[in-house]
Amino acid sequence: MAHFVLIHGLCLGAWCWYKVVSLLQSAGHRATPLDLGASGINPKQITELDSVSDYALPLTEFMASLPDYEKVILVGHSYGGVIISLAMESFPTKVSAAVYLSALMPNHHSPIATALAEFFKRNEAEPKMDSQVWFDDGPENPPTRTLLGPKYIAAKAYHLSPKEDIELATTLLRPAKLFMKDLSSESLLTKEKFGSIDRVYIVCKDDLPINESLQKWYIENSTAADHMAMFSKPQEVCKCLQQVAEKYN
Ligand SMILES: *[C@@H]1O[C@H](CO)[C@@H](O)[C@H](O)[C@H]1NC(C)=O
Ligand SMILES: *[C@@H]1O[C@H](CO)[C@@H](O)[C@H](O)[C@H]1NC(C)=O
């Protein structure tokens, strides 16, 4: 039995996991979906979030409350990938693995903001439709807040989802801050802590905002192996081969 802790993306909340939570529980696992700051039914407003740490606080408090011997599997969707990465850095001994579900996956070689900047660069020319983006630091600086609109999510994010879930989302979406400035700092993630935890990426081929090529960019950008990985990363190669053996033997 595993304990999964599920972290939503921007504007969403714990509610977006309701189907996955019940399936995981039916399969005999524990599943804990959390609302981050000013998300879902979290009582804070975004004006009360001064930093990415304020936003991530519900996960930080949850991780701190776990007994020393207990480990969880962190799962992050979309921007949730940023938040689970910060928790991996703060609580490396309490995380047995991290799962990125079509998520922003930062690495310890570049500032976390690099992952976010790549997302913006690739979506710059895409129509925003009824989604809103605010530039509180001036138009020459990166965006600071966003709120996804019902037409945008129906066309770009939930285009393969049941209509009922689009209606649900439309009533529950809340504005979110992006915290680009906080995430520009160099050493938020280290090889020793964040880098010590196994990461799994679930690629979603039909995702539009974080499309397959961007998902693969996150994977490749975090894998600092040269062409001869069997010399430079023998342990990682061996671990992957063992997983193949477990699956196909
Ligand atoms: C992903 O989006 C980029 C634009 O950011 C586009 O050039 C590319 O063709 C898309 N790739 C896939 C696999 O959809
Ligand atoms: C990841 O992307 C950044 C920004 O484009 C770049 O500076 C860095 O060299 C890339 N790292 C790898 C391992 O590809």
Extract low-pLDDT stretches. Answer: none
Helix content: 25-40%
Query: Any ligands, ions or cofactors bound here, and which?
Result: 2-acetamido-2-deoxy-beta-D-glucopyranose
CATH architecture: 3-Layer(aba) Sandwich
Q: What topology, given as strand order, has the largest sheet? A: 2-1-3-4-8
Query: What is the class in the CATH system?
Result: Alpha Beta
Quick check: average pLDDT? 91
InterPro entries: AB_hydrolase_1, AB_hydrolase_fold, MES/HNL
Signal peptide: 1-22
Domain AB hydrolase-1: 4-238
GO molecular function: methyl indole-3-acetate esterase activity; methyl jasmonate esterase activity; methyl salicylate esterase activity
List the main descriptive attributes of the protein structure presented here.
alpha/beta; 249 residues; binds 2-acetamido-2-deoxy-beta-D-glucopyranose; methyl jasmonate esterase activity; single chain; MES/HNL; 10 helices; AB_hydrolase_1; Rossmann fold; three-stranded antiparallel β-sheet
How would you describe this protein?
It holds the Pfam family Abhydrolase_6. This is ARABIDOPSIS THALIANA METHYL ESTERASE 10, methyl esterase 10. GO terms for molecular function: methyl indole-3-acetate esterase activity; methyl jasmonate esterase activity; methyl salicylate esterase activity. With 249 residues, the chain is α/β, with parallel strands linked by helices. It has a single domain, classed as Alpha/Beta hydrolase fold, catalytic domain (Rossmann fold, 3-Layer(aba) Sandwich). The protein is 39% helix and 14% strand. It is built from ten helices and eight strands. It has a five-stranded parallel beta sheet, sandwiched between helices. Strand 3, helix 3 and strand 4 form a beta-alpha-beta unit. The longest helix has 15 residues. The radius of gyration is 18 Å and the shape is globular. The two termini are 22 Å apart. The relative contact order is 0.14. The structure holds 2-acetamido-2-deoxy-beta-D-glucopyranose (2 copies).
